[in-house]
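INPUT
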Amino acid sequence: MYHPFKTFLLPCLLSLFFCSSCHQNNHQDLSPSKKKYSVYILGKDGKEYLLETDSLNSGSLRPEEKGALLDGEVMDRDVIVHKGYYYHLSRKKASFEKYKLNGSTLTLLAAMPLKDFSIENFNWVSKDTLLLTGLNKSDYTQVKYILVNTDKMLKVSAGDINIPRPSGKFTSVSIGFAELRKDKMLLGYTYNEQLSSSNYSTSDTTYVSVIKYPEMRLIKTDKDTRSTSPGGTNTIQSYSFNDEQGNYYFMSCPGIALGNRPELPTGIFRINAGQETIDKSYFFDISGSIIQNHAYGIWYLGHHKAIIRSERKDLFKGLSDHYSTAHFEFYVIDLIKKDIKKLALPLDKGTRRECVIVKDNIAFIAVNSTLNGNYIWLYNISDGTLKKGLQLAGDTDFIMRADKLN
Amino acid sequence: MKISKELIEKYHLGECDLQESKFVEEWLFSEETDQELELPSHENKADLKTQLWEEIQQVLPSGLPAPKAVPVRMLANKSSKIIYWASRTAAILILGLSSLIGYHLYFTPDDPLGLVSINNTSLLEVRHIDSKAYCISLAPESTAKINYQTGNIDFSGSIIISPKKDIELSIGGSEGKMTFKTGQTYIAMNGKSGYDRFILINERNLMDLPPVLQKQLINKFSI
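OUTPUT
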């Protein structure tokens, strides 16, 4: 017999009860994690883990014992790690989410809807204000932004940026960097051409537009054809930085893994402090140097020195083995003198990784070696020595990212 | 060519030629249900509906009212023909349904069916081809030829392979076989010309792909 209480009211009351108890749990754990570092692991069986630690100097950690097993449906490594919290856009849920790691559980603290948005770059405007620049998800042709109050997880402002949509043979836009300078935003981008399901190309031009901030209105655009594919998605890997004087450096990545214009050189560009256009007198040609390869990823060490991560075209066959073959090398470069020094590290694997943390005089470099295991290496910036630090053991296949959590 | 009881019987006896097999398979894999039974020209569809409803009403509990919209007309002289057509319709439907269930239950790489050819002409929809050992999702505007006997998958466009057990497959004209592990998901892309590259990756390494290819896959498969 139909019973309205049993069939309808009771489940409603029960779900209300469970929802309120979840809510109470969340309230108890709102405080940020106090740990110093976080490490994102891809396991041998495809499982993913997130773990936190106070030291990367020595010892060994097994993600299956110390880490939180992640739900691949909602979490991926394009995560923004900031002051004890993790921020991530769930593609399937179209929701921008804030998480905290509680021992072996990743707890969802808050979420806000973020529809038709694909994040290309993020910038912290202040400690709790995050600027996301991205594209419309339906065809990646419209540049968009959203300013988020990450304390309350609320939208401050959002809208389109009037960067010209791709025209002619070009089918989509790629934003390589977004740099905030008081009342201006410098946006580096280029246009891509989808050639087939497995092939694409990129315009030979690097564009840097000056956008009025916070109005987000296009003022002017500067072009450069010395290289293309300026920077990349910085939720996955770093491609730019400011030096101590406020000069902004970014690396172009025309290799097969990013721009697919391998005939053009990987190079470092500079926008000088106080300027809004690329310094035409400066270009650090990486592919034309002793490295003779394309690079992806750059991290600033201070005093005009940086670490870059470059591929070895003689060791991989194509995109199918670009991520699984150990072929990446690390170099310390001097941006002014243009000196290049190779680091004596094992060959690293993984096409794109956030793998360098710079703290005081030490650069912690996460290396995935096929033969020697997964380690954090300690590079002493002042004396140039290298030392093996924390091992990521057990189920670890790749250290996908290592971040400073606090 | 039309789907008929005879053709389905012939298919299950393995007596179809290549063209007929392909036609039946396309019908079996098709998610559209636009195949309607065609009545002989002298039969009126509305009359048949009315008559069928009357037959059903006779066995229903007496308290239930007759549907108001349906006009009640007596067509006693046609009842035998109607029963004949009704039973034929039911027989074909049951046969079709059982073929489909049978296919899902017993289709293995050793199945004598061998080669399956699918062309997903849709601009938006992903098509799923399920078998006992693995499921293949075919992106819009992609084609695939799957040989369940040899484990050879030839395709153009983008596909996702989700193995249900560890299986060795040879894909995209690559040399030798590769092991596809249960519980993992693999994405493969292949251009339409020889100039284009063949790419095969584990879904967990999606972020390692060039962003342009990544974004295309995310939208096509809603992953």
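end of record. Confidence is low (pLDDT under 50) at residues 32-38, 63-76, 106-110 of chain B.
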